[in-house]
Amino acid sequence: SAVISQKPSRDICQRGTSLTIQCQVDSQVTMMFWYRQQPGQSLTLIATANQGSEATYESGFVIDKFPISRPNLTFSTLTVSNMSPEDSSIYLCSVEVSLSGPQHFGDGTRLSIL
Amino acid sequence: QKEVEQDPGPLSVPEGAIVSLNCTYSNSAFQYFMWYRQYSRKGPELLMYTYSSGNKEDGRFTAQVDKSSKYISLFIRDSQPSDSATYLCAMSASNDYKLSFGAGTTVTVRA
């Protein structure tokens, strides 16, 4: 499996601001994903980060709110834009090392919006 | 009806007991089945990964898949306090990266 590092690990932000979360993997991976885990709930897929092209968003998530970049095979960012208290959540990066292999997760970014 | 059903518990057992966790699902296209363990303030950690029906054993952990019943299980033998965590089942169809997760079961192993 790969070693996945997420930064920041946690943050407290003001309403209306934006925060960019970084995901760095120690080896090249085929697929990278971003999830949201709200308190006491399971994981919801936000989008698939595609290298060199626009991310693929799931129903209910839009690029203006959650812009994603993936400039290479080891790095991706997720921005949470114009934040409101409803965006308080854990944001997780996951990777698929090989096609049809299992996904491995980072430790997440715990985000609180005041 | 949710695509994947998992009893959220909580489940509390004494040290040394067998922990039994399960999930049911409705999508017959699911072929890949996973169990993740999530400690507080950590990301999900892959425990077991199985394809199609059958059993898989890894140390104290056994995963079972019964596709005819759309039912998967995870057994933890000789449970330890360090096994206290939330256990998530997840599954996907062939050629589909999208994972469908259960709600997670919170397990506490009492010393």
Descriptive notes:
The complex is a heterodimer of chains A (114) and B (111). Chain A has 114 residues and is mostly beta strands. Helices cover 0% and strands 51% of the residues of chain A. Chain A is globular, with a radius of gyration of 13 Å. Chain B has strands spanning 4-6, 11-14, 19-25, 30-38, 45-51, 54-58, 61-66, 71-76, 85-93, 100-101, 105-110. Chain B is globular. The model of chain B has no long low-confidence stretch (mean pLDDT 94). Chain A binds chain B through residues 1, 4, 31, 33, 41-43, 45, 48, 92, 96, 100, 102-108, 110, and chain B through 32, 34, 36, 41-46, 49, 88, 94-95, 97-99, 101-104.
Summed up, what is this model?
The complex is a heterodimer of chains A (114) and B (111). Chain A has 114 residues and is mostly beta strands.
Helix and strand topology:
The complex is a heterodimer of chains A (114) and B (111).
Chain A: E1 4-7, E2 10-13, E3 19-25, E4 31-37, E5 43-49, E6 56-57, E7 68-72, E8 75-80, E9 89-96, E10 103-105, E11 109-113
Parallel strand pairs in A: 2-11
Antiparallel strand pairs in A: 1-3, 3-8, 4-5, 4-9, 5-6, 7-8, 9-10, 9-11
Chain B: E1 4-6, E2 11-14, E3 19-25, E4 30-38, E5 45-51, E6 54-58, E7 61-66, E8 71-76, E9 85-93, E10 100-101, E11 105-110
Parallel strand pairs in B: 2-11
Antiparallel strand pairs in B: 1-3, 3-8, 4-5, 4-9, 6-7, 7-8, 9-10, 9-11
